[in-house]
């Protein structure tokens, strides 16, 4: 797909059909994440956790509803990719790096004809002792920074509105 087309299709989807994301598509999304740049080439500072277990996905939504009154924290997407810090992360770069990794996943999802949304709310609101984290059995020192929910959506293949215009200052 042409890059400008990928950019025009890239948007945040808040509804999904429930159709599974294929193994081939998951592999392509992970490959795109691994192609992203991280500061000081610190690949060891990050881990990706692929969550497609319906019980874990449901737990995130249920826990969100119970603890913060906000159900559907992942919009019922069938796939969630957690971008996690490890003990080797450079704290001054982690948010920047995680954003780049997330955007690579987001762009590849558009390229594959999938929809996605970058999520931070449930990670921040549910905290580091959340039940869903216990279900994941993450290694010590690994914890989420950002997440990208991915799936098939009624928005697949529809271009984003062309209503975005930043102020551009040239000197």
UniProtKB/TrEMBL annotation:
Gene Ontology molecular-function annotations: oxidoreductase activity
InterPro entries given in the database record: Nitroreductase, Nitroreductase-like
- Identify the residues that the record assigns to the Nitroreductase domain, covering every copy: 70-152
- Name-wise, this protein is Nitroreductase domain-containing protein
Any Pfam family matching the protein: Nitroreductase
Q: Which family does it belong to?
A: Belongs to the nitroreductase family.
Alphabetized UniProt keyword annotations: Flavoprotein, FMN, Oxidoreductase
Reported cofactor(s): FMN
Q: Which Gene3D superfamilies match?
A: NADH Oxidase
Taxonomically, which superkingdom?
A: Bacteria
């Amino acid at each position: 797909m042409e890059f400008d087309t990928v950019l025009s299709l890239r948007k945040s989807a808040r509804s999904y059909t429930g159709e599974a994301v294929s193994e081939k598509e998951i592999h392509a999304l992970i490959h795109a994440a691994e192609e992203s740049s991280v500061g000081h080439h610190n690949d060891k500072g990050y881990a990706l956790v692929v969550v497609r277990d319906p019980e874990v996905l449901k737990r995130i939504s249920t826990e969100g509803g119970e603890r913060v009154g906000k159900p559907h924290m992942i919009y019922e997407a069938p796939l969630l990719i957690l971008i996690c810090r490890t003990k080797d992360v450079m704290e001054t770069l982690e948010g920047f790096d995680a954003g780049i990794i997330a955007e690579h996943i987001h762009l590849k999802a558009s390229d594959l004809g999938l929809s996605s949304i970058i999520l931070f709310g449930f990670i921040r609101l549910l905290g580091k002792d959340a039940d869903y984290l216990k279900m994941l059995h993450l290694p010590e020192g690994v914890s989420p920074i950002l997440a990208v929910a991915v799936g098939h959506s009624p928005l697949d293949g529809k271009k984003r509105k062309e209503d975005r215009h930043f102020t551009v200052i040239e000197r």
